[in-house]
Amino acid sequence: MKLSYSGHKCIEAIQIQRMEAISFLAAGLSHDINNLLMGVLHYTYAIERMNPNRHIQERLEGIIGCCEKMGEMLKRLMLLGKNPHHLKIELLDLNEEIKNTVKALQSVIPPNIKIKAPLCANLPFIYADATAIAEIVTNLMLNTIQAMPDGGLIEIKTGVAIITQGDCEDHANAYPGRFVVITIADNGPGISEEILPKIFDSHFSTKGSHGLGLAIVYALVDKHGGWIHVESEVGKGTKFVIYFPLKP
Q1: Contact predicate 102/156, CB 8 Å
Q2: Interatomic CA distance for residues 20 and 84, integer angstroms
Q3: CA distances from 196 to 34, 148, 162, 201, 234 (A)
């Protein structure tokens, strides 16, 4: 049975409140932790300049590597905590941003997973934050890859959709207008009826995916005035459809 989830209005209102609280905490914590991390790196580089022996040098490199990974995690949290007014909004070619992100992910895509990207020609540009768009596509792709350990197909498409008032009835964030759409679909194991409403909850995780990644996707799409629709069928795959508004 194919399942569809765009968020019941009551459930989604609670989800939005949760994400606002998480965003507030993320902004403060990521800033404080980043300051401490810079201190650790400063002292580590200072020791490195003292030309320690090979044994110590290897451990210093390990510390630097861990700090760099933590720095990347903090960047993600900072994005989550960003006020919409602080996003670097600019006119973007969404197709180009997707191509660049997929190219950057090539090293982590297993050989048993194939990527198809039939992107829409002459796609209208959108106003968005390039870093946020890359984070959205990256998180959705990594989530899909983790859910398909036996391999499969990921298809990324773009297009334009016109949303009517009738299309908005079951979704708290939807509103009529013209939208640029990203669709990321797979032929993996799918998501069960019990799990589907929980996938954007930051506290929820499964063996194949982590709640924070999808929670970040949800928050960033919402900050751009868009929303996400998910369809899934157990044993056949999952499809994420993301709507970004087109300015008149």
Answers
A1: yes
A2: 11
A3: 34, 17, 26, 10, 11
Angstrom CA distances, 246 to 24, 83, 150, 173, stand at: 28, 20, 38, 15
Q: What is the pLDDT of residues 179-212, one digit of tens each?
A: 999 999 999 888 888 887 777 776 656 554 545 6
Question: What's the total number of domains in the chain?
Answer: 2
CA 235 from chain center: how many Å?
24
- Tracing tokens 């990207």 back to the chain, one arrives at 117
Q: Do residue 67 and residue 99 come from a single domain?
A: no
The verdict on 102 and 205 lying in the same domain is yes
- The predicted-structure confidence for 140-149, as pLDDT tens digits, reads as follows 998 899 889 8
In a domain, 57, yes or no: yes
Whether 2 is in a domain gets the answer: no
Q: What is the CATH number of the domain that holds 58?
A: 1.10.287
Q: Which residues of the chain have pLDDT under 70?
A: 1-28, 73, 76-86, 170, 172, 202-212
